[in-house]
Amino acid sequence: MSVVTAVAIPAFGVTACGSSSDSVPRNEAGEIVVDFWHSSSGASGDTLQAIVDQFNSEHEGEYEIHASYQGAYEDSISKFIASVQTGHLPALMQASDIQSRFMMDSGLAIPAEDLAKENGDYDFNDLVPIVANYYTMGDKIYSMPAMVSQPVLYVNDEAFADAGINPSSLSTTEGLMEAVEKLHGKTGKAGLTFHHSGWYVEEMAAMLGNEFCTPENGTTSEKASTFRIDDPQLVDMWTTISELYKEGAIHDAGSDGSAATGAFLSQNAAIQMNSSGGYGNVAEANLDWDWSIHALPRDTDAAGAAPGGNSLWVIEEGTSKEEQTAAWEFMKFVGSDEIQKKIFDETGYLPTTTAAMDSLTDLSPQQKSLLEQYASTPVNTVTAGCHTGALNDARKSYSQAMSAIANGKDPRAEFETAQETADSAIASYNKRASK
Question: 151-305+388-433, which class in CATH?
Answer without folding.
Answer: alpha beta
